[in-house]
Amino acid sequence: MSLKWANTRKEIEAFEAEVTSIEAWWQTDRQKHIARPYSARSIAALRNIGFKQEYASSTQGRKLWRILNEHNAKGTYELTFGTTEPLIAKEMAQAMQTVYVSGALYLVPSVVKRIFNTQLFHDQRQTQLRMRYDEADRDSLECIDYMLPIVADCDMGFGTLTGCMKTVRSFVESGVAMIHIDDLAMGLKKFTNGEGRTIIPMCEYLDRLKTVRMTFDIMGADTMLLCRCDSDNAEFISSVLDPRDHPYVLGATKSVQSFVAAINAGKESGKAYLAVKEDWKTTAGLKTFDEAVKAVATDEQYRQYVAEVANQVVALPQRRTIARNATGQVVFFDWELPRTPHGQYMWQWSMQQVIDRAVLAAPLGDVTWSRQDKPNKKDMHDFHMGVRAVYPDRLFAFGFIGAYDFSKGGYSPDELQTFHSDIAREYGIVWQVQPIWATQGLSLHARQFARAFVQEGMAGYMRDVARPAIESMHTDKYGKPTARGGYLADAFFDVVAGREITSEK
User: Fold this and answer.
1) Is residue 153 part of an annotated ligand binding site?
2) Which structural domain range is residue 230 located in?
3) What angle do CA 453, 457, 461 make, to 5 degrees?
């Protein structure tokens, strides 16, 4: 057996050096804005001291950090779209600075790895090609930065601490530059049955973000963390564990049968689920506790109640006591009656609640994103200015769905033309993405081509695909395509044979 340390003194010295190194790293421009709930000593104790690994994810994370901060300083933005195809990601380098990857969580780290490896290949191919030519000839060759930072969807991070750690580690090892993680509930991410989102308690969301940050720190990675908040228009919450969420939980203000009982009765009578839900909510007098108090209190009594609960965290039991003292009566409010068959509590979202969540999450991450599937002017303004009131230099991200009519959000055609630059300049939304091109755009183009190919065959293919592709292809001075692997394969053979592959000085 070989010993790792010659003696405990050597071990202590190595550990203290690791602690000092971590503390110095946390003071760099890239890291100093992060507020960590743990010490450098704790992170050092979780590292492989004496066996340092460097991750490409750190390099790409620092690169993305520079890109986004440069945009923020200039009031400009990066606009990109989602893909899972390495070839498409390679072509994106012609016009964009980043690549977005989303989809099934189990697959995303492996997709990121495939795209990152493709980026490495094309960067390698381009480098050796350019080195074959003298300086004058290189001006006619491609000089593209293929190493676009990859931003990936980490979804809910698998929720559990260890599951989240494993997922994050896989992303870092894949070469990702930034991941985003949200506050949606595990196993309840459904949007196709006419219902809204189910979010998790604030404390659980913060624990997810802390877990991501801890994993980055253990790995020594400068990978970026995008805190995505999905509570905008959320309809349910998975638990009432956190008193910070209590003001927004809905309860029945009338003594009625439970929502689950109403659903079961509706099934027996053949009544549609959504109709049962709306009828039950009306019958139950669904309200937040504050609304329930207001409904039974005089104006003076309600002012007294609000004065005692405002601007502080007050759990429901304490709210009940304050309300009873103010009104002289017990306010009927039952948040158990509205629970769904899956155990969710009903939730009343508000923009202030979304802002509060984003503000609490901000110190753990680098960028903030409030998911607004139907962005209207007021919500866009209120959210971003609300967060910026606390963090004036905050970097923001925003994602656009493919089916939203912006005119319904109050935007004129002229405003839509300058929409991207306006929200970058006014709110600091420096990273903007259309996530679903990977399915929507690619499916559309494939479907259109399939129909055209059946109708016109190779004649149509040559006209619409092959000829334009050939005409747009980069070639060297001999007319040979440069974007293929032939040059790189030739270089390998030449080097093995001892032949020089660079131009003479």
Assistant:
1) yes
2) 53-235+350-438
3) 70
